[in-house]
């Protein structure tokens, strides 16, 4: 299968390119290096050093014995998107080319507007280019479990059945997003759903939980093939951020009570799920939703897990609660369904605690690199639009 990855230079994109290649697929992709620029804007960098795309592509060819077709450019340019798809002729398109940060979208009006327009425009361009060039290809769009919010009822996979006055219908589950970023994802999901109905497009919307972890072991030890791992307040997901804090002796910082509940899965499980979605497309005209996570945890559960894993390395950690910069429920019901990926063959890869120990072992050699950008660990972006960094001193 020929798979085109939009956003191939990112945390998920670069890992997925290798995972799909290892499964026998032909992979190509595009990127404008926006993730690198956004993280730099936040005063940070990847905890694990990453090389240029030129070096990545050379390493890819050496390891996998084939060239990875790559287009450098901005997905907000329709002619660029159309040209890349026309030249590659994909059987599937994986859309990872959006800005994936709620805090980034809360900085100010410019950032809120950028996240909305970037995420909607890139999705529209891929939809229209597929209609024109690859109408039979399958779109796999990365959504987020955050689209649902935290409703006071169980969360099905995308749809639920209703009956009114003897008539039944299948309706999209109401989305209750909690940030400008998450609303951009909701709007994108609605557009994909409508395009499927309008143009008979086969589409899968992956409502992904919080992903954590370094590159899977099967990617080998060549540092040029490593994927990025961010830890700043805008792009560092909570478990990755906790692990980076642990290796430099920084307290693990929970926002608010830490009783918030979310779905989580390791990076290698995300790769398994995305590959299964690509390899098992829905029928033409079907918009399919898959909730992608391994298990639901409270956020403070992860602080405890990371502290325990760190202790095995002689790292002493403190868990500290900060005033929550976000506007969110901290005590809430949360029970989402996630059966469809299991039906497609998803099997959890292993012990999450073991994954944490693997992460810490890989991050320890980069402790000084993380320490050099430690200010990026603390939040000063607030949902209200005010900015004030927490007053804080690292332990000596």
Automatic annotation (TrEMBL):
Residues 3-289 form the NAD-dependent epimerase/dehydratase domain. Gene3D superfamilies: NAD(P)-binding Rossmann-like Domain, UDP-galactose 4-epimerase, domain 1. Residues 324-348 are annotated as: Disordered. Residues 324-342 have a biased composition (Basic and acidic residues). It comes from the Bacteria. Pfam families: Epimerase. Belongs to the NAD(P)-dependent epimerase/dehydratase family. This is NAD-dependent epimerase/dehydratase family protein.
């Amino acid at each position: 299968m020929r798979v085109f990855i939009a956003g191939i230079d990112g945390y998920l994109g670069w890992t997925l390119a290798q995972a799909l290649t290892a499964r026998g697929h032909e992979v190509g992709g595009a990127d404008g290096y926006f993730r690198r620029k956004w993280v730099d804007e936040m005063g940070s960098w990847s905890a694990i050093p990453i090389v240029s795309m030129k070096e990545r592509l050379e390493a890819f060819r050496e390891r996998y014995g084939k060239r990875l077709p790559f287009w450098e450019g901005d997905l907000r340019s329709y002619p660029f998107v159309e040209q890349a798809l026309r030249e590659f002729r994909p059987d599937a398109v994986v859309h990872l080319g959006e800005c994936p940060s709620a805090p980034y979208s809360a900085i100010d009006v410019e950032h809120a507007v950028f996240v909305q327009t970037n995420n909607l425009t890139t999705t529209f361009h891929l939809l229209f280019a597929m209609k024109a060039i690859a109408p039979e290809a399958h779109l796999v769009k990365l959504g987020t479990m955050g689209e649902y919010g935290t409703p006071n009822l169980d969360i099905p996979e995308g749809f639920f059945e209703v009956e009114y006055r003897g008539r039944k219908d299948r309706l999209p589950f109401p989305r209750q997003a909690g940030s400008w970023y998450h609303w951009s994802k909701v709007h994108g999901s609605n557009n994909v759903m409508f395009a499927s109905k309008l143009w008979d497009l086969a589409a899968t919307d992956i409502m992904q939980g919080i992903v954590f972890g370094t590159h899977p072991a099967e990617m080998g030890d060549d540092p040029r093939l490593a994927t990025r791992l961010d830890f700043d307040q805008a792009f560092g997901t909570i478990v990755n951020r906790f692990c980076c804090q642990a290796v430099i002796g920084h307290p693990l910082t929970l926002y608010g009570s830490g009783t918030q509940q979310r779905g989580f899965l390791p990076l290698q499980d995300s790769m398994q799920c995305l590959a299964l979605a690509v390899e098992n497309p829905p029928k033409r005209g079907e918009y399919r939703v898959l909730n992608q996570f391994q298990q639901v945890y409270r956020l403070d559960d992860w602080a405890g897990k990371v502290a325990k894993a760190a202790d095995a390395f002689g790292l002493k950690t403190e868990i500290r609660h900060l005033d929550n910069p976000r506007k969110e429920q901290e005590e809430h019901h949360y029970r989402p369904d996630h059966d469809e990926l299991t039906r497609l063959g998803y099997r959890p890869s292993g012990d999450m605690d073991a994954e944490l120990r693997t992460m810490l072992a890989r991050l320890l050699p980069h402790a000084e690199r993380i320490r050099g950008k430690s200010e990026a660990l603390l939040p000063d972006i607030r949902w209200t639009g005010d900015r004030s960094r927490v007053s804080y001193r690292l332990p000596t």
